[in-house]
Sequence to fold (125 residues):
Amino acid sequence: MAVITEKAEITEKMKMTGTAEMAEVTEQKEMEVKAEMAKKNEMAEKMDMAEKKERKSSGKGKRKRVADFMLQNVMLGEAGEGFIDVLVKMLIVVVVGAVLMAIMRTAVPQLFTDMLTKVRGIFEV
Fold:
């Protein structure tokens, strides 16, 4: 942001004075900014390459990604919501199954007495 402000100031001075010296100063500033940005981009690329190399060489990269993912979920407050959803679904299935078994037991009692005698026969010594 400071670079843009400096450039605007220099351009304003150029308009007021109309000298060629100011044009040279502006070009020098622009070249300095471009060189600085190129250095930053080069450093970022080197860091990215080093990080990729580290991930390939050891399993730390995957563990780091998993840890980051878990941390993001905790930060968002969604840590146990998947577990709770599964637990509620299992509870619904068990309750519906128990209701169906109770209805079938009253509707077809012979079926359940036959099943109980088979199970008792297996466990009798």
In short: The longest helix spans residues 20-57. The mean pLDDT is 76.
